[in-house]
Amino acid sequence: MATAAREHWNSRFGFVAAAVGSAVGLGNMWRFSYLTAEKGGAAFVGLYLLFTAAVGLPVMLAELTIGRGSGKSPILALAHYGGARWKALGGLFVATGFLILSYYSVIAGWTLRYAGEALIIGLPADPGAHFGEISQGFGAFLFHLAFMGLTMGIVAGGVTKGIERVSVVAMPLLFVLVCGIALYAATLDGAGAGYAYYLNADLDNAFSMDVLVAAAGQAFFSLSLGMGAMLTFASYLQRDSNLPNESLIIASADFGVAFLAGLMVFPIIFALGLSADISGSTLGALFVALPKAFINMGGIGRLIGLLFFLALVVGALTSAISLLEVVVSAAVDGLEWTREKAVIVMGLMISMLGAASAWSLNILDVMDQIANNIFLLGGGLALSIFVGWVMDDPLAEVAEGASGVRWFFAWRQLLRWVVPAVLVFVLYHSVPTTVANIGMLWRGE
Ligand code: TRP
Fold first, then answer.
1. Atom of ligand 1 nearest to the CA of 23
2. How far apart are CA 198 and CA 186, in angstroms?
3. Which member of 103, 242, 324, 400 has the greatest number of CB atoms within 10 A?
């Protein structure tokens, strides 16, 4: 096979920006906030932090190790270390990327529309009714297509000239926006009630299986784990990169932005007396409550609203490119397609599948639950078993570029015992819960 030499990131910061860009997205801002509201505040946040550190971090390092070590996209990378029978797992990863991007882009389309409206015509007078109109149907589909177009344009540019170039600008911008809005929120009268809601643990809730499963699923989704996205990005790394270090940076930045997102969302909502709008929150609550809050702020609200939705668009875009890159790199390496062909064919297929989520919020919700609570957790379980038990000497691979780092010697033991045990336990509960939830959504309850 006469392939050109594999592309490499131009700089270490380029890789970190792209990987943090993948991790930080709608998951940190929209999904984290609505789940925190739905699952009762700080107890959920604490569990999510625990899963990020104890389960997410080892699996992150596992993905980076397979990716850099093989220098291949997921299907071939798994075959490289595990033989042909592990190709099926890589195939599952690619399918999961396909599925997630199809609905992720619909939500991103809402944010694109809100940002555009805040800029050009102002925020909607009646956010509840507005959200009902724009979240489903043909309009939702059009904005989904627009967002897919942006994503495809960047991925078509390639790893350094597309993904890296966008990420090194987008990530600092996102960070400044989120910090700025959180600081502004702190100046609002009545912000304290929001902090109290966000940061006080409701311990009765903490030990319900439902909260536990949601926290685990959220940790995987937010870190972009369980479907080979980090693996794919790591396959473009130079051999001297320090994998334990990079894992730690990516996971900290990801949790940091989620935490900051809570510090912007909850004070704003509580200061403007809208707490009832998010209690027992659902998928769409933030898209209704926040615009209401921005309107109630008066003149400055339009600016804050614009910046907020801009941050969401930027975060969503750098995440979406990583999802598409998984699918595209698999087609380029496995089918020997050109990058352009892979972007167009796969991008269009994903766009079409997105029509289902644009048509119905319930379908979107069903896809999100299947992807997170089953595929990503299952993928993470398989990955930890793979690196813990199947792969030959992963420690030697990690040690390259990271000699002198000691903590990762515990890492393989974590992957062998702790991570699979936790994930089996979580899956044992998440599969029936998810199936029951899907049944409910399906029947329209
Ligand atoms: N992590 C992103 C977010 O929080 C979403 C995402 C991007 C993702 N790539 C992924 C989720 C791969 C799972 C797997 O918004």
1. 1
2. 13
3. 324
